[in-house]
Amino acid sequence: MKSQKNGKRFVSLRLKWAIGTAVGSLIIFFIVAIAMFTSFTQNLFQQERSLLNQGMDNISQPLAKNDQSLTKHSIEQVLDPNNNHSFVRGADYRRPVVKELSDGHLLVNIYNPQGKLLLSTGHLEGKPSLINERQVRIAQGKHHKILLGHMPIYSHDTQRVIGYLQIENNLNSYAKSYRQLRLVSIMALCLVVLASGLLGYALSYFLLRPLGDIHDTVKVISKDPTKNVRVPVSNRNDELAELIDMFNDMLDRMQRYIEQQSQFVSDVSHELRTPVAIIQGHLDMLERWGKDDPQVLSDSLKASLIETKRMKNLVQEMLDLSRAEQVEINYRNEKTVVNDVVHQVFNNFKMLYPEFTFNLDDDLDEKITVNIYRDHLEQVLVILCDNAVKYSQDRKEIHITLSRGMNTVEIGIQDFGEGIAPEDAKRVFDRFYRVDKARSRKKGGNGLGLSIAKRLIEGYHGSISLESSPGAGSLFKIVLPIIEDPESLE
Fold it and tell me: How does it sit in the membrane (predicted)?
């Protein structure tokens, strides 16, 4: 056990599992053992009770053949008709009367109607009870409970009481079996608890071993978030294996996010450093001598205004990117008819760039509604069409397609311009990434447009992809899930 910073004592999950397994097994086995123990002992007790009842019948039935009250002589005549003296006469009869009539652990007392003891096979622990009804009851003996049977003996002929019979079952064999069974149950209970605890600990050590790997990985990552360490992947096929995959994916995303943030800060610093330096240089020059030269003053003001506008655009794009990462929270219930937006952007660009040929291939036969804010979809299409125009210098032709998949709508924007190399195509959606930084700067781009488009589309559970090759143009494809039964749009 280890002490934690919050003051609570650390208890291993393996130990908790082992204790929980042991306690669970204890409860289950205790219930089963109690049920079996109770059933067995009750069955054994019923056998002893049946034996006592059978002994009472075996002894009372032969004696009931007498017409007169029982005497020692009449009892002897009934129980020893051959006069072979298989028993000792008198009140101190020590052995069973006849083996067929009673068992060795049954003690028998026979009384005449006046309560005088006529025959006894041993000293009874229970007090004599001369009652006129048959009764079998439990009494407390010297060491444990005993069974007592009392009954009157009626003559078969006269139907009057000719004596009384009392039989005692000392239950010694029952008590012995009871103690042995109780001891075995206790030992079995202890063995089950010990075995289940050890088995639970062993199983937890094997099954929860990935948690130890996750723990070690988290400790390393917490000390250095940039360290490239992952949880070892096992061949298991269970919830922990899925957890490891999800955890490693999360670390991968976090690693990429940290790298992107680091690159973002570096790029922002670089992007802002240049216009700030330019503006500062022109202001310094004007302060020193340029303010007296109208031409220099005019040129410096124009250059400063251009750089200020570029900084403003950069800040605006950074704000757009930040908002794009929160669309799922702020615009989750927005709905838009895709057909209307695509046709609007198509018509706008035809008007803005008459020197370009814009073609729209609309395969939709009906209005298609998707879960996206209208302005965001228009913003994405404008970004893609604007890029297509910028990088189409020789063949000024743009194709826009609109089609439907199984449960999605697909928008394609294709140009026939410069194209993008495969190694660059993988990074065009990264922040501030530009395939050709010098040419992109001349075209006025900051490298955030495609990144904003990707964040917006993915925020609405869609996807955006690029197919391109140098000299053959580029095809951007947007896929958005369709709302099958849209509510009425405002």
Answer: Multi-pass membrane protein
